[in-house]
Amino acid sequence: MTKNINTNFDYNEEVKKCKTIDDVMGKNGLIQKLVKDVLENILEGEMEEHLGRNKYERKETPDELKKNYRNGYSTKNLRSSFGDVDLDVPRDRNAEFEPQIIKKYETVCTELDKKIISLYAKGMSTSDIQAEIEDLYGITISPSMVSKITDKVLASAAEWQNRILDKIYPIVYLDAMYFKVRSNGKIVNKAVYICLGYTMEGYKDILGIWVDEAEGAKFWLGICNDLKNRGVKEILIACMDGLKGLPQAIKTVFPSVNIQTCIVHQIRNSIKYIASKDKKEFMKDLKEVYKATTEELALAQLDNLKEKWGAKYGIVIDSWYNNWSNLSTFFEFSPSIRKMIYTTNVLEGFNRQIRKFTKVRVIFPTDESLNKCVYLATMEILEKWTQPIHNWGATLAELSIVFEDQLKDELA
Q1: Which has the closest alpha carbon to 405: 166, 236, 173, 201?
Q2: Are residues 261 and 173 in the same domain?
Q3: Do 122 and 207 have their domain in common?
Q4: Same domain, 144 and 19
């Protein structure tokens, strides 16, 4: 059915009608009417461009009569940050008109998309997002619409995950977080594996996020090869929490890497085997090992620890000896670098921030929803990483001496 459209919006007259803030910002208020008028005028202009003539102009020659013509209007409900707007969209007889300002199947404006995605990224539940959008804009959206809108970030997440990385990362940290996900009718634990790295300029960055149930050398080998395939040539120091299969995998892909197992996690794993009455004294003696000024002194203190406690806690002390090559890497460096690498605190801090964003989601319905949520939370966190770490110049100078062969071309 053909209907006339009002394209003569009288702004001054409408302003005179406004007596309250709701008259301006509320439902059917001035802003909403103005948005409707502006969009409909743009749509009219697009149709004129499409047909090659003005709205009421018709051609009467035989050839021109075969051309396309207007065919009335269809109504489209657009959900915007100004509320629901009912648009009269012009149609053509040949159904060839494709609006550009509002795409053919688009029902939510980009600005509202961004708002919903932003709320989702901040950890709000679907029901909270629904309430927030209705409160702010007077729009009712369904849970499926929230999912559909936030699913738009999956393409961006894939692009980010596959981006080209730097050739050299002086220090990286690898760890895993665990979440509950529905899978084939069951609830399973899925791991989110994270790699955080310092760039050559001293900035923190997240190199990748991988969601999987798998673990072990084969899985970690895939992650390390992914980093290499995306451009990473050298990792100088890799800090980790004794993750199964990771040391072997990273050494295979990056043979010259120096591995540092987290001292704090090693201490935690040790202390759980110590009787309560012995903990204070044992920890005092153990501290002499990891607080030693040199590796030689640390080994001497470890020998003393074995002599004093070996009969009672041999399994604990043997763990330190068996893992010594990866536990002792930090002794090669100055106190400032030791502080950076002997724990994975920097990555654990990132993980805690991720938990703040994901805490309202006890169980994720799919791997995609978990990946989407962690990616959006990561983007929020990365926005705040705008400065290099303190005194990075001195750190890089020391690393350039220790790793002269790996860095000589980069610093030339």
Answers
A1: 236
A2: yes
A3: no
A4: yes
Confirm whether 3 is domain-assigned. Answer: no
Q: Tell me: do 198 and 291 sit in the same domain.
A: yes
Ramachandran class of 344: left when φ > 0, alpha when ψ lies in -120 to 50, beta otherwise: alpha
330 shares a domain with 274: yes
Neighbouring C-beta atoms of residue 137, cutoff 10 Å: 20
Residue 29 has pLDDT above 90, yes or no: no
Q: Is 117 left (phi over 0), alpha (psi -120 to 50) or beta?
A: alpha
- Note whether residue 326 is domain-resident: yes
pTM of the entire predicted model: 0.72
Residues 225 and 338 in one domain: yes
Please report which confidence band the pLDDT of residue 26 belongs to, taking 50, 70 and 90 as the band edges.
Answer: low
**Domain end (from 107, 135, 154):** 154
Percentage of residues in the chain having pLDDT higher than 70: 83
- Per the structure, the complete domain to which residue 345 belongs is given by 163-405
* Closest-CA residue to 263 (of 184, 190, 345): 345
What DSSP assignment string belongs to 162-186?
A: TPPPPSEEEEEEEEEEEEEEEETTE
Query: Nearest 5°: phi and psi at 251?
Result: -70, -30
Lowest mean per-residue pLDDT among 7-21, 57-71, 87-101, 371-385: 57-71
Pseudo-torsion of CA 274, 276, 281, 287, nearest 10°? 50
Residue 365 near residue 179, CB atoms below 8 Å: no
What integer pLDDT is reported at residue 107 of this predicted model? 46
Q: Write the DSSP symbol of residue 94.
A: T
**Phi-psi sector, 231: left (phi>0), alpha (psi -120 to 50), beta:** left
302 touches 317 (CB < 8 A): yes
- CA dihedral angle for residue 331, residue 336, residue 339, residue 342, rounded to 10 degrees: -30
88, 84, 126, 129: which is closest to 109 by C-alpha?
Answer: 84
Determine the 3-state secondary structure of 399 from DSSP: helix
Domain count, the chain: 2
136 and 196 both lie in a single domain: no
Judge contact between 111 and 83, C-beta under 8 A. Answer: no
Same domain (yes/no): 71, 180? no
